[in-house]
Design goal:
Elements (H helix, E strand, L loop, with lengths): L20 H23 L9 H5 L7 H22 L14 H11 L2 H14 L4 E7 L5 E7 L8 H4 L4 E7 L6 H4 L3 H8 L5 H11 L1
Antiparallel strand pairs: 1-2, 1-3
Helix pairs in contact: 1-3
Length: about 210
């Protein structure tokens, strides 16, 4: 069936003051909605129009060449944003703090400490030139790695396409539309605020599923 725009699992204003209500509303109902509309239009009537979006972006090479770029951008945007909303939660109500259990152990094994991981992920987000995403990915054996992608690329697309591979378990949108109303050009402030609303339970769930 065609892709549909998901509902947020919280109110538009639930992430304030870290992410403002107006940004959340525009981000979902304008930007994400446009990705859904454009992806559905591109895939309508093709053999792919009932295929899960994650499967489509992981197999872009199999799409007709005239569909590939628009699907990469728009189905990629749908996948990325559908994940992003789930990775956020109100501060103190599931959002913020630090991970625990197997996820914490894997972060410590890969990066030495949570603080080191946080610094490297922050660096990847801040230094992504232009628009894109920062990711924490699970690779073979559950080993974790940080990377970033341009535009609406996703590590599921593979290194040959996205320059970054693995199963994403945490992602941060650093397109200007994700933060400009509140932070203007201060991307580092937005990235710092993000840590207050990370839904670590959801990241842990995705890590378990990826192992």
């Amino acid at each position: 069936m065609p892709f549909t725009l998901p509902s947020l699992p919280y109110a538009y204003d639930a992430l304030q003051p870290h992410i403002d209500a107006r940004t959340m509303e525009i981000h979902l109902t304008k930007h994400h909605a446009a990705y859904v509309t454009n992806a559905n239009k591109a895939l309508e009537g093709t053999a792919w129009d009932n295929t899960p979006a994650e499967q489509i972006i992981a197999n872009l090479k199999d799409l007709p060449e005239d569909k590939r770029a628009v699907v990469r951008n728009n189905a990629g945007g749908h996948v990325n944003h559908s994940m992003f909303w789930q990775l956020l939660a109100p501060a103190g109500k599931g959002g913020g703090g630090t991970p625990s259990g197997d996820l914490a152990d894997a972060i410590n094994a890969a990066f030495g400490s949570f603080d080191t991981f946080k610094g490297q992920f922050t660096d990847a987000a801040i230094k992504r030139f232009g628009s894109g995403w920062a990711w924490l990915c699970a690779k073979g054996g559950g080993k974790l790695a940080i990377c970033s992608t341009a535009n609406q690329d996703n590590p599921l697309m593979g290194e040959a396409v996205a320059g970054c591979g693995g199963t994403p378990i945490l992602g941060l949108d650093v397109w200007e539309h994700a933060y400009y109303l509140n932070y203007q050009n201060r991307r580092p402030d937005y990235v710092a605020a993000f840590w207050n609303v990370v839904n670590w339970a959801e990241v842990a769930r995705r890590f378990k599923a990826a192992r």
